[in-house]
Each structure stands twice: as structure tokens, then as C-alpha cells.
Amino acid sequence: MNSLILTTATRLIVAILLLFSMFMLLRGHNEPGGGFIGGLIGATGFVMYAIACGTSEARAALRVRPQQIAAAGLGVAALAGLSSGLLGDPIFTGEWLMIGASGDSKGLALSTVLLFDIGVYLVVMGGILTLVFALEEEI
Amino acid sequence: MSWYLAMPLMTPVLTAVAAYLLRGSGIGRWVAVAGSALGLVFALMLMNQVIAAGVVTGQMSDWPAPFGITLIADLFSGIMVLLTAGVGLAVAVYACGEIDDDLEEMGFFAIFQLLLAGVTGAFLTGDLFNLYVWFEVLLISSFGLLILGGTRQQIDGAVKYVVLNLVSTIIFLCGLGLLYGATGTLNMADLRLAVDNSDQQGLVTVLSMFFLVAFAMKAAVFPLFFWLPASYHTPTSAVSAIFAGLLSKVGVYALFRTFTLIFDNDPAYTQPILYVAAALTMVTGILGALAQTDMRRVMSYQIVSSIGFLILGLAIGTPLALAGAIFYLVHNIIVKVNLFLVAGVATRLCGSSEMSRMGGVYKTAPLVALLFLVPAFTLAGFPPLTGFWAKVLLVQAALEAGNWGMVALVLIVSLLTIWSLMIVWARVFWAAHPEGLEPRTADLAPVRLHLLLPIAALGLASILIGLFPNGLIVLVQAAAAQLLDPQAYVDAVLGGAP
Which residues in chain A have their CB less than 8 angstroms from residue B62's CB? Predict the structure, then answer.
């Protein structure tokens, strides 16, 4: 599509969408958000870019093929699930590491749940982009 | 304990990731084979554990039953997981010889491993909703495998397969929703208690029919079988072999599981339905096989016929009948995968799977003909191969139940099975090629080992089990006893989870 307004606006919107997708990913688990919704928003950014500038541009901006992203995400999620088994708990148990926790403050909470969510993020983003790019190129 | 249950499930998932990321590098397909071999080791460890402990159970994520995700393996599940890993490895080796680089680039080996993960998950789950999820995993993967390559014939088969399987999935999901509304739980062990204590037994029986129809459709039971022969002959022979061995058997497994564990409240209503379905499935399947002219379609109809034998075991419902049905399941999975793999080799030799354009395989490739004879004799039920023992158990069970009609039907259908195999043998292997062509063995030379080794291994497994059936007969009798008295299963899930 050749629209000056769309291409110009897309540059701004894509950056905001990608940032927002990161925000949604990190906000997840205890508040609305998480890997699935974050991945959808992140994919939306690249889909907009593909509509405005063409899929070959979008593929170049993504650098990695979307199928690879999805496969890697599945691997990350699976390993995050197995990691709790190494600590002696049933597999897929959430393991939490609270850095600097004191009193009421939980500090910086890192967890295998977040790692799993990152895997989901990558699977959703890679999967959606595979479909959209294929459909866009078909037309 | 949860390691034993999770590893047979997680190994194919991780193998899929590795095979996909390494595709095209030349080692991707061998990573897939190595992953399958590792999966077989884990399945053996699980089986060992199940034999020692009776029932192995684990709660994923540490949420207690009935709220969390339960994985559970009793003997029946253990046998099925072991078979899945075994034929998965055989077909993975075969696929290395058959699948070209284009299909690998599209992710053949990754999707294949995800299919194995889906099938294993369906066998290991202790929760009806998770059973639905695993059905989805294996269906999505099977859609992918079915259309990979994208010929017109494949798309045609895939559309029928997808539409009918989606209908069955929707019925399954409706049943799940209604059952949850009626009982408030979907954990299978908890459901057994909830169904036993329910004051609306009539409603439960109605709900069970949702599951009967949904699973019967997946299992290709009459009259819901027609998607199977419409699609199984279209993809590559590695894919049709794994479909033939495992996919419809997952539906049979689900029927056995739900109708022994959960919906055994009103056998007077369900047994006659199962009897009629079993009889009609056996007969229509084998008549269909006799009417077909395509080698793989003949075998697809034979699958439908053999599903009838399995349902018959469930319909009779005695310990001996269930043991016979599980034995038949073991026999049939190995044999069906083997026959489809041989059919793939014969198709490549003759350049067609249409029997009017095949022939002369015995003359040019006697080894392939011999490798066909082993599973063919096994399926037909010649002593002392596995098909014989399976049918002995089933016929004995039918005799004990005093069901003479079924005994006669089983024997007639067996005779017709031999006839349909004779037609294949005579036309494809014995007769000369109708167009005077010599089958091209030269094409196969570079990949001969990849193609023939798994066929020989599966044939050997059939022969060995047939010669020494005692161990397996004891095992399937114990598995049948567990199915009919699920107290240990319920206790393992609900009482004091480890």
C-alpha cells in the first residue's frame, strides 16, 4: 500500500506498540497482561509495518524468520517448565527469586513464570507473523 | 515421580524445537531420530515404574488434584505410551529415507514430533479437559502433516479430514461443558466419584453419549468413519503409517478410558450401542477393503475393520474381553504401521499405489515381498503371530459371554481380511506388472536401509511377541483388571498425592 500518511504514522506507532507489548509482557501474572497478549500486541506492530511498507521490509526488520521465533519460544517455555523439576519440585511449578525483598516490599521478583511467559510471547508473535506474512504475500 | 510422566511428553516437544531450528543443516532429521530414541528410553522407564508401582501419578505445577493438571499412567496408559514411542522411532527412521529436503524445510520432522507429543499427552492425562487440549495438539499437527507438500489430492483429503474432525471436536467440547455444569469437575478420578454420587443418572447417561459420538468419530467407528479412507492414502507413506498406527487408536483409548472409569453407570444402555457399532464397523470396514483398488485405501478400510474388534472388546466388557482388546491394540498398532510402510516401499517401486498399475514386486524385490508377508500373516491371524493370540482372547471372551453371533462375525471378518490381503499379494507382489514395467529397485538403493530397517524391526517385534506371548498376556490381563476396578486409579489421584 502506498500511503504517505500511513508510512509516516507507522514509524511512530510501531515503536509504541513494541514498547507497549514489552510492558504488557512484564506486567503479567498478577495483573492483566502476560505473554499471550504481549505477543499479540508485538505482532500487531510488525503487521502494521508489513501493511505500510511491504512484507519484505517487515521480514528484513524482523531479521529472523517468524517460524524460527515461534520454535525458539516453544523451546524456552518447555525449558522454563522443566527447570523447576531440577529444583526438586513438580515440573511447571513457579520458582520465585525475590531480589532485595524486605518487610512489605517484595523487591524485584524474578521467576520461571516470567521465563515461561517470554516463551509464550515468542510463540504467539512468531505464529501470528508466520500466518499474516503468508497471507499478505499470497494476495 | 512427576519426572517419569513428564519426560515421555517433553522429549518430543524439545526434539521438535531442535529439529526445526536445525532443519536443512543435514543433522536436523538425525536429531529427530535421536530424540525419538530418547523418548523410547523414557517410555521404557515409565513402563518399568508402572509395573513396579501399579499407578504412577503426578501433579504438574504442584496444584493438588482435582484442581491442578494431573498426569497419570496405569498399565494401559504405559503400554500405549511405549507403543507410541516405539512406532514413532520406527517411522522417524523411515522418514529419513523418504522425506526430501523441501518437506524438511517446511518443518516435517518438527510437526511429526509434535504429533507424537500430542498422542502421548492424550494417553497420560488424568483430566478430561486436558484430553481435549491434547486432541487439539495432535489434530493440528496431523492437519499440518496431511497437507505438507500441497498436492491437489492431499488438499482434497485434508478438507474432509479437517471438517469431520472439527465436528467431533465441537461435540466433545459441548459434552465437556455440559458435564462440567452437571458435576462441577473434569478431573477423571474426581468425575468417577461425582458420577457415582450424582442423583441424575439419566442425565449422566445422556452426557456420556456426547463423548461416545465424539470419540467414536475420532476412532473411525461406523457410521462416522468415512473421513479415514478419504484421507489416509493421500500424504507421504511415513505420515499415513503413523496416522494408521496411532490416530484412530487415540479415539479408542479415550472410549476405553471414559467408559470404564467414568460412564460405567448404565451398561444396559451403552453396551447394546457398542455391540451394534462394533459389528457394523467390522463388516463395513472389510467390505470396503474388498471393494477398493488402491493399495493404501484397502489398508485404510482394514483399519476401520480392526477398530470394530477393539470396540467389541469394550462392548463385551469382561476382564478377558478387555485384555483381548488391549492385546489386539498392541498387535494392530505394530502391524498397521508396518503394512503402511511396506505399502510405501511398494508404491515407490511401482510408481503408483493404484493396484491396476502395480505388480512384479516379488520378482524384482523378494525381500520387500517377504517383509510384506510378515505383517500380512500377522493381521490375518495366522498362528503363532500376534493377531492369532489377540483373536483367540477376543473369541474366547465372546464365547464366555455366550454371544455366538459375534463369534461367527469375528471369524467371518477374519476370513474376509485374509481374502483382501490375498488380493493385494496377488496383484502387487505376485502378478507381473500390467504395463510390462520392471519395478525400479535402483531408485531405492541409496535409502534402502532407512526404509527397510524399521519394517524389519516391526516385523521382528510381531514375530517375537507372537512366539512369546505370555509376558504380554499377563500384562494386558493386569491392565484390564485395573480398568475394571479403578479404585487404585482414583486413590492415586485423590488420596495423598505424592
Answer: 89-90, 93
